[in-house]
Automatic annotation (TrEMBL), chain A:
<protein>
    <submittedName>
        <fullName>4Fe-4S dicluster domain-containing protein</fullName>
    </submittedName>
</protein>
<keyword id="KW-0411">Iron-sulfur</keyword>
<feature type="domain" description="4Fe-4S ferredoxin-type">
    <location>
        <begin position="72"/>
        <end position="104"/>
    </location>
</feature>
<dbReference type="Pfam" id="PF12800">
    <property type="entry name" value="Fer4_4"/>
</dbReference>
<dbReference type="InterPro" id="IPR017896">
    <property type="entry name" value="4Fe4S_Fe-S-bd"/>
</dbReference>
<feature type="domain" description="4Fe-4S ferredoxin-type">
    <location>
        <begin position="12"/>
        <end position="42"/>
    </location>
</feature>
<feature type="domain" description="4Fe-4S ferredoxin-type">
    <location>
        <begin position="106"/>
        <end position="135"/>
    </location>
</feature>
<dbReference type="Pfam" id="PF13247">
    <property type="entry name" value="Fer4_11"/>
</dbReference>
<dbReference type="InterPro" id="IPR050954">
    <property type="entry name" value="ET_IronSulfur_Cluster-Binding"/>
</dbReference>
Automatic annotation (TrEMBL), chain B:
<dbReference type="Pfam" id="PF04976">
    <property type="entry name" value="DmsC"/>
</dbReference>
<keyword id="KW-1133">Transmembrane helix</keyword>
<dbReference type="InterPro" id="IPR007059">
    <property type="entry name" value="DmsC"/>
</dbReference>
<feature type="transmembrane region" description="Helical">
    <location>
        <begin position="7"/>
        <end position="28"/>
    </location>
</feature>
<protein>
    <submittedName>
        <fullName>Dimethyl sulfoxide reductase anchor subunit family protein</fullName>
    </submittedName>
</protein>
<feature type="transmembrane region" description="Helical">
    <location>
        <begin position="106"/>
        <end position="127"/>
    </location>
</feature>
<keyword id="KW-0812">Transmembrane</keyword>
<keyword id="KW-0472">Membrane</keyword>
<feature type="transmembrane region" description="Helical">
    <location>
        <begin position="80"/>
        <end position="100"/>
    </location>
</feature>
Length: 248, 290
């Protein structure tokens, strides 16, 4: 049933550091790669080498410019995927029960063999985390790499989501956000981790760490002393010449 | 929102069909035999035709039966049950009226109630979505129910009642537009709350995540049609409500009634196109659009 569980044993999710993300899109590529070759229907591309390529992605990186009231604007790279919300509106609207939230770890998944591709779950998601695959006609979303994190065939260091494993700047963290002592929870606590669009009431599990405040310094122009005018008013012979030429 | 023709046709046609079934269930007009057959045929053709049209936008329509399983939480699933319930009950009622010349009144009332409930469930599929502030309001249900009932009265040949109800539809439509225009801002959604970066300063999209379009932009960020929104609103209002009301105030014959029905149908299609085209999904904020 698409009733949401009142409580999940774990709250597995991601913590994304907006201070550290460099916007390289490596997580987008590794996500597309892993999720095309493994669990579920592959993430299709249409007109991949043509004029207007369109494709299914579970993770996308936006870049924003933030202009404070004073000082310089700053660029923030902003990866976005499913937030595995506690109060996931995408699950309850599903007419077939294909969408569900797992009791054991809180991951929101789609059972593709039950999905009729009506698209209503994507309508209900405020974050644009779900995309209807145009070839398979089923809804695709981040699985938190459920086929990696419990996969004993993989070396232990690989048992994290592909995006986390690949991030070259360490901007993505994976763990149990339901456990207050976990590394990710500590990180959220220390850095003031935030929810996206909290007014939607979805209670996202994934948290975002805001960019650290920029340091400031007093403006000192080291060249200024060297650039002071040498002589404002000419004197002596040059003074006479200046006046004489003025009169001509 | 992308105004998919299948969904526009579905909501308009099945709305009209269930509206007519509501009146037929209540025994209005009082008919039997072949006349009743024609009335029920029109009602069932509209209702079933609309429901079939709605399956055209599915990615995997062969699994449509699975949509009956999640009635506990999903309005789409409830709509399926209510629609089938209304059609079965009204089917039995119609059979008795047409072939046995028997009006089982309580059965008709149940069928009428189920027909209204079906339209309400349809409206809640849209009205429940917090992500689309324009829809997320009881006015959405009022808009769907009033157009369905008024259209039903019109098809049932109740000229006086239809004129009154169509005037009401016009009023509901105007209020829905006016209230809907400001709701997105009133809910406090902005690119700052979407990104959580508002505490630093003003946010704008610097670079989109992809150079081409994608499913999200095609489905949710439909901005093309809004250019002529005001003109289309006037067209919708005139043909859906004002013109049919004026026609029904004339001495009504079959020809005038037919023109009124066609006018109402056309106006409702335009109105429903606007219902989708003007709806703004909050995901547009991440793309610096609405």
């Amino acid at each position: 049933m698409t009733d949401l569980p009142t409580h999940t044993e774990k709250k597995l999710g991601l913590v994304i550091d907006l201070d550290t993300c460099v916007g390289c899109h490596a997580c987008v590529v590794s996500c597309k790669g892993w999720n095309t070759e493994n669990y579920g229907a592959p993430l299709s591309d249409m007109d991949a080498y043509g004029a207007e390529p369109v494709g299914t992605f579970l993770n996308r990186v936006h870049s924003y410019e933030v202009q404070p009231e004073q000082g310089f604007a700053q660029t923030v790279h902003f990866p976005k995927s499913c937030l595995h919300c506690e109060d996931a509106p995408c699950v309850t609207v599903c007419p077939t029960g294909a969408s569900y939230k797992r009791l054991e770890d809180g991951i929101v998944l789609v059972n593709e063999s039950d999905c009729i591709g009506c698209g209503l779950c994507a309508w209900a998601c405020p974050y644009g985390a779900r995309e209807l695959d145009q070839v398979e006609g089923v809804m695709k979303k981040c699985t938190l790499c459920v086929d990696r994190i419990y996969n004993n065939n993989l070396p232990e260091e690989d048992r994290v989501p592909a995006c986390v494993r690949t991030c070259p700047s360490g901007a993505r963290h994976f763990g149990d956000l339901g456990d207050p002592d976990s590394e990710v929870s500590q990180l959220v606590e220390a850095r003031g981790g935030m929810d996206l669009m909290p007014e939607q009431g979805t209670k996202p599990v994934n948290k975002y760490l805001p960019p650290r405040p920029k340091d400031t310094w007093e403006e000192v122009d080291i060249l200024a002393p060297l650039l002071t005018p040498v002589a404002a008013e000419p004197k002596g012979f040059l003074g006479w010449l200046d006046k004489a030429l003025e009169k001509l | 929102m992308h105004p998919a023709p299948s969904v526009i046709l579905f909501t308009v046609l099945s709305g009209l069909g269930f509206g007519l079934l509501t009146f037929l269930g209540l025994g209005v007009p009082d008919i039997s035999g072949w006349v009743a057959f024609v009335f029920f045929l029109i009602a069932f053709a509209l209702a079933v035709g609309g429901l079939l049209a709605s399956t055209f936008h599915l990615g995997n329509p062969q699994r449509a039966m699975k949509a009956f399983t999640q009635w506990r939480t999903s309005w789409l699933s409830r709509e399926g049950w209510l629609a089938v319930g209304a059609l079965v009950v009204m089917g039995v009622y119609a059979f008795c009226v047409i072939f046995l010349d028997q009006k089982i009144e309580p059965l008709g009332w149940v069928g009428a109630a189920l027909s209204v409930a079906t339209v309400y469930a349809t409206s809640m599929i849209y009205g429940q979505l917090k992500t689309i502030p324009r829809w997320n309001n009881p006015l959405t249900s009022l808009y769907f129910l009033s157009t369905s009932i008024a259209g039903g009265a019109l098809l049932a040949g109740q000229a006086r009642l239809a004129a009154l109800l169509l005037a009401l539809v016009g009023a509901v439509q105007v209020i829905t537009w006016i209230k809907g225009d400001t709701r997105f801002g009133e809910r406090g959604h902005s690119i700052e709350t979407a990104t959580g970066l508002g505490s630093i300063g003003k946010v704008r999209l610097f670079e989109a995540p992809h150079s081409g379009p994608n499913y999200l932009l095609k489905e949710f960020v439909f901005v093309v049609g809004r250019k002529h929104a005001l003109k289309l609103r006037i067209i919708a209002l005139v043909f859906m409500s004002i013109l049919p009301v004026l026609l029904l105030l004339l001495p009504v014959g079959h020809a005038i009634a037919a023109v009124a029905v066609l006018s109402h149908l056309f106006g409702t299609l335009v109105s429903r196109w606007l219902f989708f085209a003007e709806a703004e999904h909050v995901v547009g904020l991440y793309y610096g659009k609405r």
